[in-house]
Amino acid sequence: VLIRSLNTASSKALRENVKRIMPVYLQPDFRIDEFVEGVLLLKEAALPVLRKEEEQEQPEIAEWAELIDAYLREIISHFCGLYAEEMQGRVEEEKQRTGRLLKAVRVAETSLDLEDVLQQVTSSVASTLGTSHSCLLLAEDDTFHLHASLGVVEKYVLWRHLSRPLSPSTDALVDHVVAGREPALYLSDDQTPLISQESCRTLGVTSLAAVPMLASDRLLALILGFTHGDEPIIRPEQVRLASMVGATVAPAVDNATLHAETQKQLAETRSLHQVTTALLDKVGLHSVLAIVCREAKQISGAGGCAVLLGNQDEGLRVAFVSGDPACQSLGLI
Fold first, then answer.
1. I need a labelling partner for 114 at 20 to 30 A (CA). Which of 1, 97, 252, 259 fits?
2. DSSP character at residue 232
C-alpha cells in the first residue's frame, strides 16, 4: 500500500488502510507505541524494495525516503485522530455504566463472608437484569451448586430444579454457557435445543439470562436471572451490563472464596494442634479421644462422633462416643 501510494503520489490508499486495520488496535492491551514502531519498520522494509524494483539512483532514493517520511507522519497523525475519536466514544459509554459498576464493587467488598458476598452479588445482578428472580451457583469441581438466591424459593418448581447440582454433562444450557464462557439470553418462544418451550412452561419462565463469572479465566460461578408471567423480559443490553457487573465483582467473590477456604484450613490445623498437644502432654486416653471427637465434629459439622479402636483379638470396639443420641447408642455395641 505504501509503494502504491508513492507511485500514485497520493496517500489516500494509506489512509483507507489505516481505517481498515483500526479494529485490530482497539483491544484492551493495545499500546500506541507499538503501532508507531510498526510504521517505522515499514519504512525500513520499503526502501530496499524500492531500490530493487525501481533501480533508482542514490539521490532519487533520498527523495523517496523524504516522501515516505511525509506519508508515515500523515498516517500516524491520522491513526491517532481515529484512535482518540474511538476512545472518546468508549469513555462516554463507560460513564453510563460507571455508577452501577461502582455500586456493585462497593456492595461485594463490604464483607469477606462468602455467603454474604454471594447474596449481595446476586441482588446486584438481579437489579441489573431488571428482575426480582435470580440465583448464583458456585462452581465446585465439575458441577454448580446453589449458594444464593433472590425470589426463587417462592417458585417451588424452579427452586426444586435449581436445588440439585447442575452439571455441563447433563444440562445443555450449563454446558453451552460454560463452554463458550459468554453470557446467554433465552426467551420462552425461542426455538433452541438448550431450553425447550415445555421446560419454560414447567418452570414458569418467560426469559432466562445465564452469566458466567470469571476470574483469571477461571469459572467461579454461574448467575441466572429469570422473568415470570407478565414481567418485562430481559433485554440483551441488560445481559451485557450484567456480564460487566459479574466481571467487576469476580475478584471480591474470589477473595471471599479463598478466605472461606483459608478459615477451613485454619480450623483443621487448629484441631490437629489440639490433638497433637494432648498426645504430647500424655494425658489419659479418655481425654485424647474426647478431644478427637470434639475437633472431628467441629470440622465436619456433624452432631455426634464415635471413635472405634481395634486390636487383633476383638477387632473394632467403640471406645468413645460424644454428641448425638444416635452416636450414644453405639456405646451399646
1. 97
2. P
- Three-state SS at 313: coil
The helix (run of H) or strand (run of E) holding residue 213 is strand 207-215
Convert the pLDDT of each residue in 322-332 to its tens digit: 887 666 666 54
Q: Angle 236-280/285-300 helices, nearest 10 degrees?
A: 180
CA distance 173 to 19: 39
Q: What is the DSSP letter of 84?
A: H
Pick from 266, 13, 225: nearest CA to 123: 225
The three-class DSSP label of residue 88 is helix
Are 305 and 322 a contacting pair, CB within 8 Å?
yes
**Cell reading at 306:** 464415635
| pLDDT tens per residue across span 114-161 | 788 888 888 888 888 888 888 888 888 788 888 888 876 666 566 677
Helices (H), 187-321: 197-203, 236-280, 285-300
Cα 71 to Cα 75: distance, rounded to the nearest angstrom: 6
The three-class DSSP label of residue 228 is coil
Residue 49, CA atoms < 13 Å, CB-side half-sphere: 11
